[in-house]
Specification:
about 475 residues; alpha/beta; Udp-n-acetylmuramoylalanyl-d-glutamate--2,6- Diaminopimelate Ligase, Chain: A, domain 1; UDP-N-acetylmuramoyl-L-alanine:D-glutamate ligase; Protein-Tyrosine Phosphatase, Chain A; 3 domains; 16 helices; globular
Length: about 475
Amino acid sequence: MNLTLRRVAEYVGGRLDGAADDVLAVGYSIDSRTIEPGQLFFAIRGPRFDGHDFLGAAAAGGAAGAVVAADSGASEPGLPCIRVDSTTRALEALARAVRMKWGRGVIGVTGSVGKTTTKEMIAALLGLRYSVLRSRGNFNNELGLPLSLLGVGDRHDLAVLEMGMSAAGEIRKLAGIALPNEGVITNVNPVHLEFFSSIDGIAAAKAELLEGLAPDKRAYLNGDDPRVRAMADGFDGEVVTWGTRPDATFRLTRVEDRGLDGTAFTVRHQGRDMDFTSPLPGVHNVSNAAAAIGVAITHGVEWDLVCAGVGGFSAAGMRGVVRRYADGFVVVDDSYNSNPAALKEMMRFVGGLPGFRRRILVAGEMLELGAESPRLHAECGAAAHEAGFDLIFGIQGDARALIEGALRHGADPESLVFAGSAEEAGALLIGALQEGDVILIKGSRGVGLEKVADALNRSFSRVVC
């Protein structure tokens, strides 16, 4: 939404320096490296950087102005500045003001696993009938969500925003900015245990999304997850569920795993059965698709459009992307992030793929698991061996416990490799690959396992299908 600097200053409670009242901001940024002409730059202070150090770069990039902390004294010749108490709070305040001015429907999406994929699916299906603003990538925190929301404009009918968290209260805060009237909760799993004493605590934090819904509220809940299903109790809005249970609003009555070619499934709604095929591999993606189907149909998108839309889904980068190589091996790149439940699901999927000579796991450390981290990694190591992986790489930190867990459950010591970094793992993997291998790459974002995938792309030729 384009706003004058004067109006921005009013919304954020700031003081505008100079005679720049009518200067128009045509976008918003916190990164001076990628700022575009006419955008308003927010000088965010972080633990490893201070945006006030980059006002010159923002001005050189054509910024319309900058939002700066009043106590910084920062300025740049020719760059109008709005001075505020906190640039982060100003960004949040502006996003909330824009959302209220826009005034249309916002759908919040959260969950332990699959929220980015589900958000993309929902936006894609709603986009068959409406103009939809969606979160950029995984812009789902106190900086990313406001930046996404500031992209809304009169042309948009709906917004679909991902909401992430690592501690209690964070989703409540995000909901207070975005003011969603609908919420989608995919599942609750043991993630971020560094900040929670139990899975029930994680469930309570996810449920903050429902507590923050605006009037005319609607909740979309995974009926197959008991903690998510229980969130319907006491909720005073409309509840739409999906899953395999007989009472699900959108009931999955058939699921067919077609390996790397995707899935086929049937959804029953109000006595009607509709068959779908999706190119996304793994039955876990069927639940994500069912959530998106439920949102789209509830919003009046026609069944035939939804069916075609599901058939056109594509995996987001590093989230289950299948790559085939001329040397005769296949990579399932799920390197964007990881947690125990998601890793076990992907191991079951890849372990069950037919037609491969060997199955190789490249598993990065799973972060933010707290004191339970060694045990959970060891459980995943045992599960990797049970799933039939012939070669297991553990990368960084507590991934050593994953290797030890596989060893204790009977894995051949010669099949187990621990590497201290993604770069080391990539070099070792390249030397071990053979024709007929299928490789799963998965780890927490901080481990940087995309470097393993990049090493493979540099060393081998891909087959374009």
